[in-house]
Known about the structure:
There is one protein chain. With 280 residues, the protein is α/β, with parallel strands linked by helices. The protein folds into two domains: 10-208, 3-Layer(aba) Sandwich (Rossmann fold); 218-279, Helicase, Ruva Protein, domain 3 (Orthogonal Bundle). The protein has eleven helices and nine strands. Helix 2 crosses helix 3. The longest helix is centred in the last third of the chain and has 13 residues, at 218-230. The protein is elongated. The chain starts with 9 loop residues before the first helix and ends with a helix. The structure holds S-adenosylmethionine. S-adenosylmethionine is lined by residues 25-30, 54-57, 60-61, 76-79, 82, 103-105, 122-124, 127.
Amino acid sequence: MSSIDGLPPLREVIETHSLVAKKSLGQNFLLDLNLTSKIARQAGNLKACDVLEVGPGPGGLTRGLLAEGARKVLAIEKDTRALGPLSEISEHYPNRLEVINADALEINPLEKLTPPVRIVANLPYNVGTELLVRWLTPASWPPYWSSLTLMFQKEVAERIVAQPGSKKYGRLAILSQWRSTPRIVMELPPEAFSPPPKIHSAVVHFEALSEPRFPADVSALESVVAKAFNQRRKMLRSSLKGLCTDLEDRLCEAGIKPTDRAEQIPLEGWCALARVIKQK
Ligand code: SAM
């Protein structure tokens, strides 16, 4: 029995349910419940919160979240093989775990959640980045969630917290830092997972700001940043060519030199440029 909840150890659960990790679903499981409880604690006080967990798998992180006192966990899992282990957790914590068998990219779980909501996940990295961008770019702000605590490939985590002037600075840094305060709160070596992935991982915690740091229209900001960083080594007067007819005037109006490169422009400059472009 495990020390955090008296349920069987995860290795045994995986064996009993023949939950062999599938590469196609990005399955690298966390088996150490002390570690999953530590990740759950990085999300802050869970006692008065609903937690949305994406990709619970055999339930290591789910058990950490419940043992740390989450009011309710709503877990979305694509793999039907994980439903057996998850229902055992659900029985152990009556009325506190609800599981939806679905692709997280295709459903909106909002109506099943009561605020405040914290989102916590150890997801396959491609799905994680896509969901992160969706969570950061709703048309209106603040969003339904108050924090995100997410596992990423370490290199992606470094891109999220990167500052201007760094090679890692780009779209993820700008979208994340515009509306939240991302911090790397833990780093994990490959051996923390079963099977071990080839890369190192890191947990990033984002607290949603009550309003974005600088005003800007979200789609204008997304498109200008995507275009500029698509050719990050070029001067903005080249990389943003075609954005509008009087590009150089617009850049100057936003306080940006047309000869600057995307990497040099701070968040405030991108928001100013998005406003100027949107006004047109
Ligand atoms: N949370 C577990 C842990 O920490 O051990 C499992 C993590 S494993 C990296 C990723 C999990 O996400 C797997 O259980 C996988 O089946 C699930 N998954 C993959 N793609 C998904 C999707 N699009 N929607 C929901 N779950 C998904």
